[in-house]
Write a structure and sequence with these properties.
Blueprint lengths: L2 E7 L3 H14 L2 H5 L2 E7 L3 H13 L3 E5 L4 H11 L4 E4 L2
Parallel strand pairs: 1-2, 1-4, 2-3
């Protein structure tokens, strides 16, 4: 089953790191292999955006960037980015 786990973030590199580590630790590797993890940055400050980029690079996760639109807009963006049987949107 193909799944998308979508994670919106704003100025939260430390939270993002903990979230991705938890997903990595608690998810069956076979499920992760056939699923997509996708982070959407909602207009973080430049320093935090760079830190977020470093975090997603460490976990080999794709990241979308945009201007501040709010969490609901980020969820919509995440859901439209990848076709999946199951979509899990985190907050």
């Amino acid at each position: 089953m193909r799944a998308l786990i979508g994670i919106p973030t704003l100025n939260g590199a430390d939270r993002l790191r903990r979230c991705l580590q938890s997903i990595s630790d608690c998810t069956d590797p076979a499920l992760l292999a056939e699923s997509s993890l996708l982070v959407s940055d909602d207009g973080s400050e430049p320093e935090e955006l760079q830190r977020n980029k470093e975090v997603v690079h460490h976990f080999a996760v794709e990241m979308l960037t945009s201007t501040r639109n709010g969490v609901a807009a980020q969820w919509n963006r995440l859901a439209m980015h990848v076709r999946s049987e199951v979509i899990v949107l985190l907050n």
